Amino acid sequence: MIFFNGNSHYVHIPSAYRFVLILFCLSLLIGYVRLDKSAQLEPVHIKMDRDDKQNKNINKPSIRFNDVAGLDEVKEELFEIIDFIKHPTKYHKMGAKIPKGILFYGPPGTGKTLLAQALAGETDSSFFPASGSEFVEKYVGVGAKRVRSLFEKAKKTSPSIIFIDEIDAIGAKRTSESNNEKDQTLNQLLIEMDGFHSEQTIIVIGATNRLDLLDEALLRPGRFDRHIFIGNPDLRAREEILMVHTKNKPIDPSVNIKELAQRTHGLSGAHLSNIANEAAILAVRNNKSAIGIDEFNEAIEKVIAGLQRKNAVILDKEKRKVSFHEAGHALMGKILNCDLVSKVSIVPRGEALGYVMYAPEEDRYLTTTNELKNKIKVLLGGRCAEQLIFGEVSTGAKDDLKKANTIAYQMVCEYGMSNLKNRVFEPTLIRNCYPLIDKEIKKIIDECYEDAFQTLEKHSHLLSAIATELYKKETLTGQELENILKLNEQKYSLSI
Ligand SMILES: Nc1ncnc2c1ncn2[C@@H]1O[C@H](COP(=O)(O)OP(=O)(O)OP(=O)(O)O)[C@@H](O)[C@H]1O
Ligand SMILES: [Zn+2]
Q1: Where are the transmembrane segments (predicted)?
Q2: Domain range enclosing 406
């Protein structure tokens, strides 16, 4: 209550009322402060909560290179990228551009995702996994928007690694039957990759099982210009992968991991991790205190039986055949001093069941008749070895034959290196003179085959030595090949 005296503007309030008034004002004040506080605090509180969630969503993998077994060559290649991410200024000062995109390609389950996580773990980068198929939407523009928002998030928490699995889902070659939504999504990805500055350390890793499907635009310099093949593990790698996946499991001492690795030729890392897990589950079911060989045997059978592709696991007989076939190529290459062999392997790669890798040659612009014939002999060496050892040939030389025949054809029709001398055959002339040309091609191929066969026959002890080691180890480096030859050449010369 307020008393008002019109004359003096003095307001007289009795003390009891004064007390109540003070209390009222105080309570208002406290209420206001509380209201004000809560009005201010609440959004702050919510904001913190959101930040917290965002931070929690930022995935910083704890996986390290040590968790990825085998793949030593790949890891070596990635060490450079690690240095880029860890010390970007060193490179910026030199005016060097940090690579933006890396493409991992190879068969499924070989550790592409694992490696990308390990790269993030090693560099303490934020990890943004995505799958190409997530961006493929019915409605135009949705995929592009998702790409934009993914890059926005990655930029905020740089250094970041964006991992796009199944990149072929958005990055496949564009055809005349264009799909507007897919094209927009791919364009957005290209724009984002072209857009981020080199000061923002963001590496985009794409993974695919089919490199050949990807659009050229994606592979251009400045985009996914580093391509790293990640293949199925060889014997040593399989042993290491099995070790990684049995590390924290009680294993019966009688289990020989090396022997398990030998029996799982052609399987991927994912299969091996699956075997270890299946074996553990079986051990629980069998009331065992440790995983024994019976559980492993059953798990291997289960995983192998579950494989749809029969040739995913090469039968032992085939493995022997492939070993001799590849040894035939490698030995011919060595004897004829053709190209420098850097690796021989019987680990399937793409459609090939084995392969010989040659060290990059210096650029050559001229090749002689003899050199071309030697190339044909090396190509035919695989089939010759099969004929020599098994008395029959297989379909495995399909690609070799195609390449050998192409060289022979060029020798006859383009280089004037046959009995038809210095003639050049244009398509119409080829049609008219086909029997003549064919006879010359056949002559070159037959002579080379005969020569390669005799050479391998003469050095069959070396062929067997290489094939045996290859069968055992599955991959031989150029140096290991050299050592086998040296060792057996000595034995050979001593024995004659
Ligand atoms: N080199 C390896 N070392 C250890 N574990 C491995 C290795 N390779 C594969 N694995 C195991 O297999 C699982 C699957 O591997 P990952 O997902 O990385 O394969 P991927 O190549 O990305 O397959 P996809 O092409 O099918 O996406 C991993 O989680 C891991 O358990
Ligand atoms: Zn071959």
Answers
A1: 16-35
A2: 316-495
182 and 274 co-located in one domain: no
CA separation, residue 158 to residues 98, 151, 196 (Å): 14, 10, 11
Which residue, by CA, sits nearest to atom 12 of ligand 1?
270
CATH of the domain at 260: 1.10.8.60
- Within 247-315, residue ranges assigned H as helices are 257-262, 269-285, 293-306
DSSP string, 360-409: PPPP-----HHHHHHHHHHHHHHHHHHHHHHSS--GGGHHHHHHHHHHHH
User: Structural domain tally of the chain?
Assistant: 4
Judge whether 371 counts as a catalytic residue.
no
For residue 275 and ligand 1, the question of a CB distance below 6 A is answered with no
Distance, in Å, from the CA atom of 225 to the CA atom of 240, rounded to the nearest integer, reads 30
Closest to 466 in 3D by CA, of 327, 337, 339, 354: 327
Out of 276, 295, 312, a domain closes at 312
- 327 is written with which tokens? 């040894």
Please tell me whether the peptide bond between 159 and the residue prior to it is cis, using omega within 30 degrees of 0.
yes
Binding residues: 106-113, 325, 329, 400
Q: Answer with the one of 179, 210, 229 that is the final residue of a domain.
A: 229
The partner residues of 59 in beta bridges, in order of sequence, read 127
Are the CB atoms for 128 and 59 separated by under 8 Å? yes
Over the stretch 156-186, which tens digit does the pLDDT of each residue have? 888 899 999 998 888 877 776 666 767 788 8
Distance of alpha carbon 364 from alpha carbon 362, whole angstroms: 6
Which amino acid makes up residue 455? T
Q: What is the pTM of this model?
A: 0.66
User: Residue type at 92?
Assistant: H
State the Cα–Cα distance between residues 160 and 151, nearest whole angstrom: 9
Beta strand 202-208 pairing with 160-165:
parallel
Pair 323, 301 in one domain: no
| CB 208 near ligand 1, within 6 Å | no
- Tell me: the pLDDT tens digits for 191-201? 888 876 656 78
- Tell me whether the omega of the peptide bond preceding residue 14 falls within 30 degrees of 0, making it cis: no
Counting ligands in written order, the one closest to the CA of 379 is: 2
Q: What are the tokens at 50?
A: 């959101």
Closest CA to 67 of 245, 234, 227: 245
Expressed in percent and rounded to 5, the helix, strand and coil fractions of the chain are: 60, 10, 30
ipTM of the complex: 0.94
Tell me how far apart the alpha carbons of residues 135 and 154 are, in angstroms, rounded to a whole number: 17
> To test the ligand 1 pocket, which listed residue (66, 67, 74, 113) has its Cβ within 8 A of the most ligand atoms?
113
Give the type of residue at 382.
G
Q: Which among 313, 314, 354, 311 is positioned nearest to 470, based on CA atoms? A: 354
Q: Does any ligand 1 atom lie closer than 6 A to the CB of residue 71?
A: yes
